[in-house]
Amino acid sequence: MKSALLPERGPGDRLTAIFWRRPRVLLLLLITPPLLWLGVVYIGSLAALLLQSFYSIDEFSGLVVREFTLKTYVELFRPANFDIIRRTLVMSASVTLASAVLAFPIAYYAARYATGRWKAVFYLGIMLPLWSSYLVKVYAWKLILAKEGIVTWVADGLGLGFLLDAALALPGVGGNSLSTSFLGTFLVFVYVWLPYMILPMQAALERVPKSMLEASADLGASSAQTFRTVILPLAMPGVIAGSIFTFSLTMGDYIIPQIVGTSARFIGLAVYQLQGTAGNLPLAAAFAVVPIIIMLIYLSLAKRAGAFDAL
Amino acid sequence: MHSENRAPKSLTLAAVGGLLFLHLPIVLIFLYAFTTEERTYQFPPPGLTLKWFAVAWNRADIWPPLYLSLLVASISTLMALVLGTLCAAAMARARFFGRDQLSLLIILPIALPGVITGMSLRSAFSLMDIPFSTLTIILGHATFCIVIVFNNAVARYRRLSGSIAEASADLGANAFQTFRHILLPNLGSALLAGAMLAFALSFDEVIVTTFTAGQQSTLPIWMLQELVRPRQRPVTNVVAIVVFATTFIPILIAYYLTRGGSETAGGGK
Amino acid sequence: MTVAVEFASVSRHFGTVRAVDEVDLSIAEGTFFAMLGPSGSGKTTCLRLISGFEKPTHGAIRIFGQDVSNTPPNRRNVNTVFQDYALFPHLNVRENVGYGLMVKGVGRATRNARAEEMLALVKLDGFGERKPGQLSGGQRQRVALARALVNEPRVLLLDEPLGALDLKLREAMQDELKALQKRLGITFVFVTHDQTEALSMADRLAVFNHGKIAQIGTPSEIYAQPRTRFVADFVGSSNVLPPKLAQRLGAAPKWSSLRPEALRLTDTRTAALAGTVTGLRYLGAGTRVTVVVTGAELGVLVPTGSPLPEQGAEVGIVFDAADLHPMEEA
Is the four-CA dihedral A151, A152, A155, A156 of positive or negative sign? Predict the structure, then answer.
C-alpha cells in the first residue's frame, strides 16, 4: 500500500508547495510584469501628459519652459481654441445620435429575428467592418464623396443632383463637394463608428426576454406602445454604452477631419498639429486633457444609468 | 416558423440596408485599384487595368514601411500575449485588493481616444528625452494590444469548468504540469485568437503611431501621407487592399477559433 | 484500528463566516463515511480541507497519522470525484484516466494498460477513445471515478457525486459505489445533502449544521437516537415533541423525538393522545397523516393497505414508550 503522502519530486513540486502555502506569491508573480508595464508606460505617460499641460511655451524662443503655470490652460479659453472644443462636442453629439438611430434596426433584427446561419452573417457583418482597417475605411469614403465620385454619379443618374447641391449649399455644414464639407466629415464619422454602437445595443436587446415582449402584447399594447414602453427603456443601457464609444472616438479622432472635411479644426486635429508642426507640446497636452475630463464626466453619468452591465 | 418570429418588412429592409452600408464602401477600394484613371476618383472608372499591382510592387518606398509594420505588429503581439495572459491568469485566480482598479487600467488604453494615448507617450518621450525609434512605436502598440489578448483569455477562463485546475492538482500535478497539460491546451485557441486580433489592430494602427514614430513610416502612416498628398492614387488602393487583407485574414481566423463559445472574439475592440 | 483522517479542532473561517467551526472528527480506515447536511453547513469545506484545496484557519488535519499542514493537494495520496466531474475536455477518456499516472512519470504503455483496467472496473471498456463531451452524465461519473481510483488513493473523496444523475441511475450507482468500496477496501468520504443516500450507503455518518458536527454515528444510531432537534428533523423528518408534551406522555421533560412509523392510529377512547387529522400525503409505500394534538403537530406513517382516517376526523394515537427518544440538547 502506498504512503498517504507522496514525495516531493524536483523544483516544480517545491515551487508548487510555496504557491500553495502563500497564494499571494503566485499572484504577485503573475501580476507584476503587466502591472509594471501598464503602470510605468501607460500611467507614467498620462502623468507626463498632465505635467506637460502645466508647462508653457516661451513665445520668443519656441522652447518649452518647464515651470508650473496655468497659462496654457487659460489659452484653451481663447475664442479660437474654445471654438474648436465646442465644434468637437457638437460633432460628437450629432455622430452619436445618428449612430444610435442607424444602429437600432440592425441591432434589433440581429438580436431578435436572426437565427442560425443569419445570426452568423449578422455577427460577421458587424464584426468585420469593426475590425477591418480604419484607414482603408476612411479612404473608401474619400473615393465615395469626391466631386467626381459615386455619390455625385448616382445623384445625377437619378436626377437628384439638385438635392445634393441643395445640401451642399446649406450654410455652416455645406461646401464645395461632400468630401470638403462638414456633412462629409459627419458621414464618415458615423460610418466608421457605427459598429461600436450596434454591438452593445444588440447585447442589451438580447437580454430582453421574448416573454416580456409577448406579455406586453398580451396586455393589449400595440407594437408602437411595446416599442416605446418596453423595448426602448431596456435598450437604453446598450445605447449609452455604445455612445461612450462613438462619443469618445469622435472626440479624439484627427484623421477623418484631415482627409474629409473643411479646414476647421477639431480637438484631435489641434493636438496633432500643435505637437507636430507648431511644436507647442504644452498646449497640445492641455487640449488632450479636455477629452479625458469630458469622458470622465460622461462615464460617471453612464455608470449611474447602468450602462456598464451591457459592455 | 411562427408568424410572431417574422420581422416586419420595414425592419428587415432597414437591417439589411444597414449591413450593406457597412460593406459597400470597402468594395469600392477594390474597384478603384483597377481603374485606368490616376488623377481623380472618377466614377464609374473609365477603364480597368492590372498594371497598378506591378507598379506598386516596384515602388521602393512601399517595402520598408511594410517590413516595419510587420515587425512592429509581430513584436507587439508577442509582448501583449505574455502580459495579457499573465493578467488574465491573475484576474481569474482570485479576488484581491485593487482588482477592479486593475481591470480599469487594462481597458483604459482603448477606452480613451487614441490621440490621448499617443499624446501621453509623446509627452513622456519628450520629458525624458527619449528619441523616437522602432522601440517607441512598439511601446505604444503593445500597450493597447494587452487588453485584446486579455479579453479573449479571460472570457475562456470563465467558460472553463473552475474545477479542472483543481482536478489536475488533485491527481498529483504540480502548478507547472497543470499549466502545461491542462490550462494551455484549453486556453490555446483563445490566446491565438487574441494574438490574431492584436496583430490586426497593430498592423493597422495609425492614430497612436503618428505620435511615436518620428521620421519612420509604418504602412498606415505611408498611406496617410498618400491620402493627404496623393501621388499615384491607384497605387494607394493596391496598398489599401494589402492592408485590408492583412487585417481581414487574422480576424476571420480569430472568429473561427472562438466560434460557438459565448466569448466569440472581437466584442471588445 | 487505523485512523485514516483525523481533524483536531479544525476551523475554517472565510472573513467573519465560520464555515467550519472547531470540528473534531476521526474516520477509521476502510469505512464508507458520509458527511450529511444542508447546503452551507460546512460539509463540502471539510472535504476540501482533506483534499487540500482549503487550509484550516486553526487546528490540525492528519491523514494516516501524518500532519498535512504543509502538504499541497498534489502530494496528498487522496483523490476526489468532483461534483461536476471536472473531466478534462481536451483529453479522451483514456487520457483522462491516465492523467494522474502521466504527471507522476509513468510510461505510456503502463499508463494505458492501467487506464483500461480501471475503465473495465467501472464497466466502461471500449470507451477509451471518446471525448468527455460524447458521454452521458452517468458515464462521465464513472470516468471521474476511474480517474481517481487509478492512483490507488488511501482516501477517496466524493463531492455529491450522484447529484446530477436521475433517480434510477442514482440508485444503481449507490449500489455500485458501495460494492466497489467493499471490494477495494479504500476509505470513502462522501458528501451529500440527501439523507436517504447517506443512510443507505454509509457505515458511519456525520450530520453537519452551521459548521459544526451535530451528531456522528452509525445510520441506525442517528436515525433512532437523534441527539438534537436539528438531527431529528433533518434525518427522516421525525416528530419533535416539546418538553411539556413529552412530560405529559410520561417521559422526562426534554425535547424528544418520535419517528412517524412508530405511531399507530386508533380510536380516541383508548389512546393517550388524541387530535384532529389535518392532512394526508400519499407516499407510495404508505401515507403520512398529519394530526394536530394539543401543543404539537404529529406525522403518522400509515402503511398502504391499512385503513385511513378522513380529513378532519378525531383520532387517537398510540406508541411504544421505548420509541419516545429524549434528546440531549434543545
Answer: negative
Backbone angles phi, psi at C72, to 5 degrees: -70, 165
Binding-face residues of A in 13-72 toward C, CB within 8 A: 13, 16-17, 19-21
pLDDT in tens, B127-140: 888 888 899 999 99
Instruction: Extract the C-alpha cell encoding B109.
Output: 488604453
Mind listing the domains of chain A with CATH numbers?
10-49 (no CATH), 76-310 (1.10.3720.10)
Is residue B175 in a domain? yes
C76 touches chain A (CB under 8 A): yes
Q: Do A49 and B124 touch (CB under 8 A)?
A: yes
CB pairs under 8 A between B and C: 65
The torsion angles phi and psi of A225, rounded to 5 degrees, stand at: -70, -45
B251: closest CA among C209, A53, A131, C228?
A131
DSSP C1: -
For range C276-284, the mean pLDDT: 89
What are the structural domains of chain C? 3-231 (3.40.50.300), 240-326 (2.40.50.140)
Closest residue of chain C to A16, computed from CA coordinates: C72
Number of domains composing chain B: 1
Which ranges constitute the DSSP H helices of chain A? 10-21, 23-37, 44-53, 71-76, 79-112, 116-131, 134-145, 150-157, 161-169, 182-206, 210-218, 223-226, 232-252, 256-259, 267-275, 281-304
Per-residue pLDDT at B265 exceeds 70: no
Interatomic CA distance for residues C198 and C219, integer angstroms: 8
Domain for residue B203, yes or no?
A: yes
Contact present, B48 and A141 (Cβ < 8 Å) = no
- Residue B198, classified by CB atoms within 10 Å of its CB into exposed (0-12), middle (13-18) or buried (19+), is buried
C-alpha span between B181 and A239 (Å, rounded): 43
Q: Mind listing the pLDDT tens digit for each residue in C18-60? A: 999 999 999 999 999 999 999 989 999 999 999 999 999 999 9
- Cis status, amide bond into C309, omega within 30 of 0: no
Return mean pLDDT, chain A. Answer: 83
Residue B251 maps to a domain: yes
Q: Does C82 touch chain A (CB under 8 A)?
A: no
Amino acid occupying residue B187:
L
CB pair distance less than 8 Å for A271 and B119: yes
Helix (H, G, I), strand (E, B) or coil at A65: strand
pLDDT at B2 over 50: no
Q: How far apart are the first and last CA of chain A?
A: 55
R_g of chain A, CA atoms, integer Å: 26
Q: Which range of residues forms the domain containing residue B248?
A: 60-258
Distant-in-sequence, close-in-space partners of B1: CB < 8 Å, separation ≥ 6: none
Cβ of C99 within 8 Å of Cβ of B177? The answer is no
Contact B235, B56 (CB under 8 A): yes
Q: What is the mean pLDDT of residues C60-70?
A: 92
Is residue B105 domain-resident? yes
* CB burial of residue C234 (10 Å; 0-12, 13-18, 19+): buried
Facing residue for B172 by CB, picked from C86, C88, C104: C104
A64: amino acid identity, one letter: V
CB C255 within 8 A of CB C327: yes
Locate B100 and state its grid cell. 477592479
Q: What percent of chain B has pLDDT over 90?
A: 20
